[in-house]
Specification:
single chain, mainly alpha, Butyryl-CoA Dehydrogenase, subunit A, domain 3, two-stranded antiparallel ribbon
Length: about 600
């Protein structure tokens, strides 16, 4: 993660080159960390959890339908307040991850919430012991309770994997010194890393940013700096991965999970066969997508062989201009408005109400995200905006998440959260709208070529790269089940998927084998990465339906976003005539990328 003194600082002259960058106003969550409101909610939570356990433990199976609804609503309010507290503590921490007071505040809040909510562990366990027929009767009697059926279905999917009440409480209690502690070690280690690039000391974000620099020697220097520092810290990263993978294997074994991926599939409410169909379709398409594209790119760069630092190189015909913040905002809002003015209206408050933190600042977490917080407040978007054309696409992406989260909020705390497989839908669609608007505005063949190549590259990074990541994780967890992995073992697994996915055109610099070390998803959310490819493939298929001129598309699209997590992917896609369990569905999405590569190849003739 970020470092106390990065080269780019939104509050210095470097940041002002992009205009007046917005910062978060977290007061919509709490006025301050020591506010009466924060203390009030923390105290309320302690009491509410104790009362909930007192009122319902051992009694769920004997409740009437209306009493069960009262219990569910009480549980939902607890989720809301706990979510509000942790959203605030987490967002404050991400603003300056190197601030030990903020880290302590977040850790203390997490400890308290874990302690307060431990008595609630019975709820899911007892609920899952209710007989199917009894639950069906209750849902038939009470329409308000029946609304929560998707939540109950997801809970009951875990029924075969439930442990005893006592063991579940133990796991809940010790989570803060298990995976959460290793997550923090990873984050804080990343935050403290310094990279020496040509005599200049940079943080991770600024160093990774150089991998897209026009100057090839800078890209090479940044790659070597990353490899050197990752190698210096490789034992820590290997220990984190070994421990987390082993912890997962132990818990999965106790829960009788058939594979390491099963828990993620259950959480995503997606069938293993659907994910495998996606994975197989993408791997089969590597030669038609990434291998072809990178061979073209080598030609454009005038290279016989590509080095790893050339993968994300800007194209020689690409503009090096800086996009200021106002232009980025207007570009995205115009693209959203062209689709439907309602979409732009939903996005506007992000810019005017302190819902975006855009600048690169000392200690700030790297990357970009949209945090939904809780349904009674609003999402917050984090960027590290450096004025690159691709940063505009990142803005379009994260705003798509934000719009989705705002629309889904009406579902309430328990039903608004979208499974990861569908969480990328609005974000990738927002990117596609922005891309198509820019493409329509291209004045020359050269401009069109740059835009198409940039989009293809982004889609390869989202689809091909993320499925390669998924394969790496599958291999890592399978290998760890056989015993402790050395750093060299993990490096070898990483290189096996890189070579397969990127193609013959690449040479791999010594040290590139360590580049698994900085990917946070492997640490924070095992097997998360396939959701990106799922989302991209789904949106490409959706966009094809839109481009074919479905007259009711917009209405159906907004309905899809409003549904949040209240519907299964089959029900959400059915109105568009799409079915993710059909292998041809994934080919529809991949053929869109292939068509763009066809056009780029045709431009060479």
């Amino acid at each position: 993660m970020a470092h106390p003194s990065p080269v780019f600082d939104a509050n210095s002259s470097g940041g002002n080159a992009f205009g007046d960058l917005p910062e978060w106003d977290l007061t919509d969550l709490y006025p301050s960390e020591d506010s009466a409101e924060f203390k009030r909610d923390m105290d309320w939570l302690e009491t509410a959890c104790a009362e909930f356990a007192h009122d319902y433990e051992g009694k769920l199976a004997s409740l009437s339908a209306s009493e069960m609804l009262t219990a569910v609503l009480a549980y939902e309010k607890i989720e809301n307040i706990a979510g509000r507290i942790m959203s605030y503590a987490g967002l404050r921490y991400y603003q300056i991850t190197t601030d030990s007071d903020r880290a302590k505040f977040m850790a203390d809040a997490q400890d308290k919430i874990t302690a307060y909510t431990t008595p609630l562990v019975f709820y899911g366990l007892e609920f899952n012991r209710i007989e199917d027929a009894q639950l069906a009767d209750m849902l038939a009697q009470n329409a308000d309770l029946a609304r929560y059926k998707p939540v109950f279905d997801r809970m009951r999917a875990m029924k075969p994997h439930q442990l005893s009440d006592e063991l579940e409480k133990f796991l809940h209690d010790q989570s803060t010194i298990g995976a959460a502690a290793w997550n923090r070690l990873f984050d804080e280690t990343m935050a403290g890393l310094e990279f020496d690039v040509d005599g200049e000391t940079l943080n991770l974000e600024a160093t990774l940013n150089l991998l897209t620099d026009q100057d090839r020697s800078k890209r090479e220097a940044a790659t070597h700096a990353l490899a050197d520092v990752f190698q210096d810290n490789i034992k820590i990263f290997a220990r984190v991965h070994n421990t987390l993978a082993k912890e997962k294997e132990i818990e999965d074994r106790w829960r009788h999970m058939p594979t390491p991926q099963t828990g993620r599939h259950l959480a995503n409410h997606v069938e293993a066969e659907v994910v495998e169909a996606l994975r197989d379709a993408v791997v089969a398409a590597y030669p038609r997508l990434s291998h072809r594209y990178y061979a073209l790119k080598a030609k454009w760069l005038g290279l016989d062989r590509m080095q790893t630092w050339d993968r994300n190189a800007p194209l020689p015909m690409e503009s090096t201009r800086t996009v200021d913040w106002d232009e980025a905002r207007d570009t995205v809002l115009d693209a959203y408005a062209d689709f439907d003015p309602k979409m732009a209206e939903l996005a506007k408050p992000f810019f005017t109400e302190g819902w975006i933190d855009a600048g690169v600042k000392p200690g700030k977490a790297p990357g970009a995200f949209a945090h939904p917080t809780v349904t009674t407040v609003h999402p917050y978007v984090m960027l590290n905006y450096l004025g690159k054309p691709r940063d505009v696409m990142t803005l379009a992406h994260e705003l798509g998440h934000g719009v989705h989260q705002v629309l889904a909020a009406d579902q309430g705390e328990l039903l608004s959260s979208t499974p990861l497989t569908l969480a990328e839908t609005a974000s990738v669609f927002g990117e596609m709208l922005t891309f198509q608007k820019l493409l329509e505005g291209a004045k020359t063949k050269q401009e069109r070529k740059v835009l198409l190549a940039g989009k293809v590259e982004d889609m390869i990074n989202t689809v091909v790269r993320q499925i390669a990541f998924y394969d790496f994780e599958c291999k890592l967890h399978a290998a760890r089940a056989q015993g402790e992995l050395t750093p060299d073992d993990i490096n070898a697994l990483w290189m096996s998927v890189q070579a397969e996915s990127l193609g013959e055109i690449f040479d791999y610099t010594p040290g590139y084998g360590t580049f698994w070390a900085y990917i946070p998803h492997f640490v924070h959310s095992p097997f998360y990465v396939y959701a990106y490819a799922f989302g991209d493939g789904l949106v490409n298929a959706l966009y094809a339906v839109y481009a074919e001129g479905d007259p009711d598309f917009k209405e159906k699209y907004f309905d899809m976003l409003r549904a949040g997590g209240s519907k299964h992917h089959t029900d959400l896609l059915a109105p568009f005539g799409l079915d993710a369990s059909d292998p041809k569905f994934w080919d529809k999405g991949l053929s869109m990328i292939e068509g763009m590569i066809d056009e780029l190849e045709a431009m060479e003739d």
